[in-house]
Amino acid sequence: MAHPAQLGLQNATSPIMEELIAFHDHTLMIIFLISSLVLYIISMMLTTKLTHTSTMNAQEIEMIWTILPAIILIMIALPSLRILYMTDEFNKPYLTLKAIGHQWYWSYEYSDYVDLAFDSYIMPTYFLEPGEFRLLEVDNRTTLPMEADIRMLISSQDVLHSWAVPSLGVKADAIPGRLNQAMLASMRPGLFYGQCSEICGSNHSFMPIVLEFIYFQDFEVWAS
């Protein structure tokens, strides 16, 4: 999860998030190089009094500053499209979890199991145990198996919500009357926190999400 004064993204726990962080660093480096070049040119124009008259009407220079930005855009677009298609891939998910947004809590239904559903409310401050996080802890954590493809079906019963867990690279809108789909997976066990990311009313800040990833055998025992 995030920590105070953090400048970068949260540590990735899923392959998709690892790809997103790599793409972020790739794009940031391109922006840094372009900004450095522009700053250098501006500083040279402001500090030198020399001019080169032949560059005022040079076709070669115009071709370079037309083709080079196009190449840079392609270098950004191709990895972006690759990740976009990766997020839409759904290859035989191990289980399906349905998340339904309410004002102001989440309901979860395990579609592959009979009568396995519960509501997840924020934990009041006076019920917190030592080591638990205020405004992020819930009374019923969502338990999932690690190293498994999990299909999320996300909807809402009242207003717009958004189900988001940054360390997994998952964010999908919960829209009344519509079912959105997302895929998530965790490569390690642990607790991962998220929140509603769509302003949904006065208690919008009090809709945390807690996912607890455990080993396969432990999950089967829990689900049974």
TrEMBL record:
Its cofactor is Cu cation. It is a multi-pass membrane protein. It comes from the Eukaryota. The keyword Transmembrane applies. Binds a copper A center. InterPro entries: CcO_II (IPR045187), CcO_II-like_C (IPR002429), CcO_II_C (IPR034210), Copper_CuA (IPR001505), Cupredoxin (IPR008972), Cyt_c_oxidase_su2 (IPR014222), Cyt_c_oxidase_su2_TM_dom (IPR011759), Cyt_c_oxidase_su2_TM_sf (IPR036257). Pfam families: COX2 (PF00116), COX2_TM (PF02790). The chain crosses the membrane at residues 20-42, 63-85. This is Cytochrome c oxidase subunit 2. It comes from Ateles belzebuth (White-bellied spider monkey).
